Amino acid sequence: MSLRVYNTLSGKKEEFKPIEPGKVRMYVCGVTVYDYCHIGHARANIVFDIIYRYLQYAGYDVTYVRNYTDVDDKIIKRANERGISSRELSEEFIRAFDEDMATLGLALPTHQPKATDYIAEIIAICEKLISKGLAYEAGGDVYYRVRKFPGYLKLSKRNMEEMQAGARIAPGEQKEDPMDFALWKAAKPGEPSWESPWGAGRPGWHIECSAMSSSLLGETFDIHGGGRDLIFPHHENEIAQSEGASGKPFVNYWLHNGFVNVDQEKMSKSLGNFFTIRDILKSYDPEVLRFFILTAHYRSPIDFSDQNLKEAKAGLSRFYEALKAADETLRSHPLPERPVCPEISDAEREIYDRIENLEDLFAAAMDDDFNTAAAIGHLFEAVRGINRLIGEARFDECNLSLRVIEDGAKKLRELGGVLGLFGSDPVAWLEGQKSAGLQGAGLSAEAIEELIEERRAARQNRDFARADQIRDALAAQGIELLDSKDGTSWKVK
């Protein structure tokens, strides 16, 4: 199966055909660096990190550009409030962004340009657009004439006349048409500025990405990504600027991730349901957040809640528990070179075939518009098979089950790595989650072991009411007891 992606421009899935065979050029809009990143930023960046990783796994040579917007109205306002320069503020939050993305396990893009390093390129695009009659200077500002670009709104599929009805010219603007947008803004007192043919000023938001992407990837490239909220006006205006200047198609495939809702409401500061990545990581391991995001298709909305994070933690724990059990089984039963025994049951054959075909199943899911939810579903099926083999394996002279357990664990780690998952030592990761859970519950491992021993004694004395009371009390604090023929163990739910 060849890779198919949903292209926002066409509104349908298309076979992915890069401009240059074997190579992919991809640009993803980064953050405006004036504050700490929130869960929405986490989703967008994790989504395109996975797309980057999978394209490399599929054999492509990928040039991945993710920018920093380091000059903007919000940056200037926040810097003035704090009494520092815009550069100081932007550098502070670039460092914070880099720290957050490293904590989330993101691979570094090929290039991470800053808008302020591309002022000359921005001015050059503005001059070209003016020379073509697509832009004009007015009082030191430069505006784009949207009605002169025939393809305007082809990405967002909006209606120009309906938008015109609600458009207004703000005080101080000298637009010819309310729909026109700023490419260059004349300097105001106390703002950062650069010299230009139209006087001192600074770039508008949209023109920055046109300059950075074309400089690093060429006038036409393969993939442009970002959140759905960027489709209009940002990406629409990028198309108008870039295609207006070059006369060539800007991007072949537009990919957009869905919104993040919080407890089924849109996340916003006004609703008080706004969470930074740093807030979340006080309570959850970074890999839990990554796993949570990947359990939904990237184009779908995703509901962020404490309960959903707990479920993601439980799901991720199942993988680590399976890898831990596989490692322990393989250590206990060495694998000498012996012939594979052909006499196996139908149930065993089903497990063996699923694990043998796991890479193909994984690739088929990811080739269907990067369907990480389906890919993780196939990995879960492999975990179920591994666990069943560990529980029922005939560790006889042929060692077939052991070989399949070994192969399954290896494939889980390799394919998990494509998703940025399962890279930790299973014992250490599970112990870390247990310790974190104990801190949240206000319990110690010693106290839990004492209660387990008390419960064992109660059951031995047939005091089942007390035994159940201990179990229920621990469950209420997030501690699950696991009874087996070898005794009772526990884990944090």
TrEMBL record:
Compartment(s) where it occurs, according to its Swiss-Prot or TrEMBL record: Cytoplasm
Family membership: Belongs to the class-I aminoacyl-tRNA synthetase family.
SMART domains noted in UniProt: DALR_2
GO molecular function: ATP binding; cysteine-tRNA ligase activity; zinc ion binding
EC number: 6.1.1.16
The name this protein goes by in its record: Cysteine--tRNA ligase
Swiss-Prot/TrEMBL catalytic activity: tRNA(Cys) + L-cysteine + ATP = L-cysteinyl-tRNA(Cys) + AMP + diphosphate
GO biological process: cysteinyl-tRNA aminoacylation
Sequence positions that bind Zn(2+): 29, 209, 234, 238
UniProt cofactor note: Binds 1 zinc ion per subunit.
Keyword Repeat: no
Sequence motif 'KMSKS' region, residues: 266-270
